[in-house]
Every structure is written in structure tokens, then in C-alpha cells.
Write a structure and sequence with these properties.
alpha+beta; globular; two-stranded parallel ribbon; 28% helix
Amino acid sequence: MRLRRYLTPKQLLRLNEPNRANNEVPHELLQYCYIQDDIFYLPPSKTLLASSVVVTSCRDANYHTIRSSVHD
């Protein structure tokens, strides 16, 4: 939450596992998350690479690593 004071939503990306409920994430952080149809998703590579800072938990990073390798 501290980084949001210094970074815009275009600079900071917060990744969450898709089955995480939106109400589990503080409202002020949702603007930094990639959400489609009320579900957290891994954004397109262009969006991901345009971010200066990507924040995620180790568990969620592992989920996204597995997911992206399956889709490649």
C-alpha cells in the first residue's frame, strides 16, 4: 500500500490469483490490479512489460508462472 503514494496505476501493477475475491483487496488498491469481468487476471504481455513495478505474493507468482507456461 505504501508504493501507491509514489506510483500511478500505469507504473504499478498488483497481481492476484483469479479466484481471490475482490472484497479481499483494499478498495484503494483495486485501481492497480488487472481485472476483467470482476475477476483478477494476468494482463497481456504488453501491459505487464509496460509496468515499472509488479507486486505479487510468492504463491500468486507461482500460479501465474504455471498459467503462462501452459498458455505458451
